[in-house]
Amino acid sequence: MKGDESNKLNKDKGPQKQGAVEIDRLDNTLQQVVDTLEQGRLEIFDIAQDCDQQCSLLEVELEELKLATIQVIEQVEKTERLEKQARFKLMEVSSQFNKMSEEDIKAAYDEARSIQVQLMELRQREIYLRKHRDDVAASLKNFRSVSKRASNLLMNTSLALNVLQGNVSRITDTIEDIQRKQQMELWIIESQEAERRKISREIHDGPAQSLASMIIRLDLLGRDIPGQKMSLAEQIADLKKIAAESLTDIRRIMFDLKPALFHDKGLSSALRDYFNDYEAKYNFDIDLIVLGEERQYDLSLEIALFRLVQEAITNVRKHAGVNKAMVKMEDTGEGLTIVVKDNGAGFDTGKISDQAEHYGIMGMRERVQLIGGRIEIISAPNSGTQVIIFIPLEGDGHHEQNKGNNRR
Predict the structure, then answer these.
(1) pLDDT tens track, the chain, 408 positions
(2) I need a labelling partner for 247 at 20 to 30 A (CA). Which of 66, 72, 190, 353 fits?
(3) CA of residue 120 relative to chain centroid, distance
(4) Do 175 and 167 contact (CB within 8 A), yes or no?
(5) Largest Cα–Cα separation, the chain
(6) d(Cα 340, Cα 308) in Å, to the nearest integer?
(7) What's the rounded Cα separation, in Å, for the pair 186 and 191?
(8) DSSP for 135-150?
(9) 252 with 281: CB under 8 angstroms?
(10) How far are the Cα atoms of 112, 304, 310, 392 from residue 297, in angstroms, in the given order?
């Protein structure tokens, strides 16, 4: 049987291992996205910084060009006045051409020519400076636009990066929860199949054998067989005893499937009745201690907790090497705590996942998570074991206000 359980556990480890590989692959992919965003953010930051530096340089250059342009315009205006005066002077020289010396005439023409050349150069410089100023102003406008877009993109990228970095673990946890629930569904199916096989064996070994014996005995009663040692009354009494035992076995199997007291008295009463039956069947003592208010909870929660206690008690009987356990149940109003304790052989909790006999404990942990609680297992070799289950109650809908709900 242990070999079959080990094979089953190995099969179940296959999806777990595959799920772990998929989560690692997702982690790597998300990390690559984060790294790419971070690299892009750094590049955008460099672009924005370069744009800001270019804008600073262009602003200085533009101010210098504006000042130079104003100065050239002033020089052009001044030179235009001088050129105008030079032309008037030439007009006077022309009108007094015969009265002036050749040197004076040449000097007047040279001065006028020099002023005209200077004016042409200044006007060309004015045109150049105006164009250069306008080009620099256009470049500055473009760089400011790029800088603004880069700053906005940098802000959005940083925000996306922060959100992604803050949610990578949450995304992974969500996927792990989904895979855990999927694995739990597989475990539930496997547990159901194991429970069906167990019920089949119990019915076969108990009521079915008894009923078969009854049929044979009834058949014999219908025959007149010489030498029968038992009288008819004795045989009927014996058959009634077999029928009563079969009925007891059937009721026990039915109770294991769904404790009847859930419908009337709740979890603590169902546990008391179950422990009484368990003690009689296995010669196993169970002390039940109930602290706080005894009340009814949501039926699904009570059934889940009942199955968890069943599993814990079964583990004690099979693996602890003792015939006694203690179960403490305490309702503080804010939460419900159930402790299953034994003074048996104990085990190394770090090796739970490596041992087939602790497969049930792994399933218990998953069940507790599904009902929104938490479980702690305290154990060590030769030091006994404590299984502590805590379920929060306030505001979670576990406490059944109307006892008629969900119990029909």
Answers:
(1) 444 444 444 444 454 555 555 666 666 776 777 777 777 778 878 887 888 888 888 888 889 989 989 999 999 999 888 888 888 887 877 777 667 677 777 887 888 888 888 889 989 999 999 999 999 999 888 888 888 888 787 777 776 666 666 555 565 666 666 666 666 566 666 666 666 676 767 776 677 677 777 777 676 665 655 555 666 677 777 777 777 777 777 766 666 665 544 556 778 888 998 898 889 888 999 999 999 888 888 877 888 898 899 889 988 998 899 999 999 999 998 899 999 999 998 888 877 654 444 556 777 887 788 888 999 999 999 999 999 999 998 654 455 544 444 443
(2) 190
(3) 77
(4) no
(5) 185
(6) 10
(7) 8
(8) HHHHHHHHHHHHHHHH
(9) yes
(10) 113, 11, 18, 12
Alpha helical stretches, state H, 96-206 = 102-203
Q: Which domain covers residue 52, as residue numbers?
A: 28-186
For residue 313, the one-letter residue type is: I
Separation between Cα atoms, residue 362 and residue 319, nearest integer Å: 15
Q: Computed over its alpha carbons, how large is the radius of gyration of the chain?
A: 49
CA 38 to CA 168: how far, in whole Å? 14
- The answer as to whether 116 is a domain residue is yes
Of 186, 207, 222, which residue sits at a domain end? 186
Residue 399: both structure tokens together: 């406490």
CA 342 to CA 316: how far, in whole Å?
7
With a CB cutoff of 8 Å and minimum separation 6, the contacts of 210 are 242, 243, 245, 246, 249
Position 229 in a domain: no
Our count of domains for the chain comes to 2
Domain presence at residue 218: no
What is residue 386's DSSP assignment? E
Residue 73 makes CB contacts below 8 A (sequence gap 6+) with 126
Q: Which of 170, 186, 202 is the last residue of a domain?
A: 186
- CA dihedral defined by 345, 349, 353, 356, rounded to 10 degrees? 0
Contact 390, 374 (CB under 8 A): yes
- Domain for residue 208, yes or no? no
